[in-house]
Each structure stands twice: as structure tokens, then as C-alpha cells.
């Protein structure tokens, strides 16, 4: 009772940095993906802190939907999600064998990709749902043809339930469909062998975001949207299927607070090494956001952020927990909020533009956002 009152009356800490996620945009993206393939059941991927959007926050949001299953990668993620959702949980990654006995088997489904794990789960003599992960060419995980044959010999008589068969495209984000077709053909070959062995898996899935945007095949009845659910089109503009992802809407924005104002004279520099020297008198705003929080050092002297109708430039090197933004000609003061990442495509500080600046992909930019930054649904 004491703890309840403490929680109720505890002062709400106002964060200096904040990640916001648009409920409306996430739900829009899910609806859009569903309409591309109405017969496809979506298993949203909320691993890696929901691609930076906040795993607890996404559990809360997805509770508003009819989605039956969410995907995580690790036992640690499972422990967190299990407390924040009533939905089934598909564990995509591996865990130490002794951890398996700690799962709630009524709610958990395991992607099994090797004989070692399969034998261990059989040995538990518990009713456990699994999705057999077959290797169709990614060559990263999954049963080979030889090992699949062995698995189909040891599964009968066990208490494991083959609830699904799954795989993963290796080049779905590239325009050429040749490799996708080859993987689909191999998947179907393996699936029919599983059927011939006497199993009737409920789910068949090979597509993540790019595959969902491109593959139109009613054989598959489930898909695992990740980056597309969060609003990013993984396809190249020259891909004929690119248009299928044009209506996706980035849901995440990042805000920070000005914690100091510095007046710098012409000829003076800023931050470590003086990599930027002011040509004229300038006013700089200090923000509590550095490379620890996410702001990549490669954005030093490059990043521009939108403020009203003006662009503000990052000056000098990004530090561990602080950075400097030039605000000359504005009325920005200590305590004001700045939008560090924008969801508006016309702005230079979108996740997509930032990824291009530092030569990486949206996935890395998003997942590098520190878990300890507060996330809020808006």
C-alpha cells in the first residue's frame, strides 16, 4: 500500500530529452501494410527496444489492436514484454538452454533453427509451440535440407507443436526479384516435406518489411513488419514496388532542451579541437545530447535542425553528453525545446537524411537512441 501511494504522489520528473511516438502514425502504417495483403496476419517486430521507439510503449499501443503475436529477439526482451502485453510472444533469437524452462509456454512460441535447440526442447517433455526456421539462402540461421530431414524424424512422438514454418529473405530490399523467387521456391519445397511428414503448421512466413511490400503470394499467411511499421520504406526508389511504401509515415521524433546560452566572438571556436571557428559574433545553445544519447560524432558540423522557418546548425564536435547549436538571429533561450529529429520529410533532420549523412541505414540511427531517454505516445 505504501508503494502504491508513493507511485501516485511522486513528482513527475520533467526530462531534458524526449522521444515521442505518434500513435496515429503507427496504427496508420499497420493498416496500410494490412491493406496491401488483407489475408496476411501481421506479427509486429518490437525487438531492440522496438527499433528505438520503446518496447513498453509499443506494447501499450499494440494492445489497442487485434494483433495476436509480437516478435522479440532475446530472453531479456521476453521478460520485459511478458509483463506489458497479453499477446503471444514469438522469440526470434536463441537463448541459453537453461533459460527455456523460465518461459510461460502458454504464451510463448519459439523460432527453432537447429537440431541442438530442438532436441533440448523435446527433452523438456512440455507442450511447446515452435516455428521451424528453414534456411532458404540467408545462410545465417535455419535448418538445412539435411537437418530438416533429421528434425522430421525426431519430432513425431514429442510434445512439441509445429505451429509455423518461417524463413527470411536476404535481398528483398533490392529491386531484382530473382533471389526472392528462388527463396520462395525452396521454402515451399521444405514446407511440403513438413506436410508430408504429417504436420499441419498454421503459419507460413518469410517476409519482413520489404517482403511484405513486394511479395504477393497467398501461400504465405503471416508477415513480420519491423521498419515499415515504424514508418520507413526499406525499398530503393528504382524498385517498381517502392510505391507500396510511399504512404508510410515516420512516427518518431526527438526533442531536447536548451540548457545554456553562450555568446561567442568572431574568431573564437567551439567544443573540442575548435573544429568550428565563428566567422562572426554568434550565439550558441548548449543541449544535453551527445554521442552517449545517440548524436553520432560524424554529424559534427553537419547536422541541421529545423526551427520554425529557420535552419539551425550544429557547431563543433559532438561531445559525450553535450552539443552546441548556433541560434544566432533567434529568440531561443535556456529552457526552450528543440526538435532534434523531425518526422516531416521536408526537414533536413529526418532519420532518413541523418542516415545518409553518416553513411548508414535508418535501422542503426533508430536503434542507437538510448533506452534511458523517456518515450511518450502522442
Biggest sheet strand order reads 3-4-5-6-7-8
The H-and-E topology, N to C, reads as HEHEHHEHEEHEHEHEHEEEEEEEEEEHHE
Q: Pairing-aware structural class of the strands and helices? A: alpha/beta
What top-tier CATH class of the largest domain fits best?
A: Alpha Beta
CATH architecture heading of the largest domain: Alpha-Beta Barrel
User: Assembly type of the shown chains?
Assistant: single chain
Helix share, percent: 25-40%
The residue ranges in which pLDDT falls below 50 over 5 or more consecutive positions are: none
- The CA-CA distance between the termini, in Å, is 31 Å
Characterize the structure shown.
This protein is α/β, with parallel strands linked by helices. The protein has two domains: 223 residues, Alanine racemase (TIM Barrel); 126 residues, Beta Barrel (Lyase, Ornithine Decarboxylase, Chain A, domain 1). The chain is built from eleven helices and 19 strands. The strands form five sheets. Strands 3-4-5-6-7-8 form a six-stranded parallel beta sheet, covered by helices on one side. Strands 11-14-17-16-15 form a five-stranded antiparallel beta sheet, with no helix packed on it. Helix 5 links the parallel strand 3 and strand 4. Helix 4 crosses helix 5. The longest helix is centred in the middle third of the chain and has 19 residues.
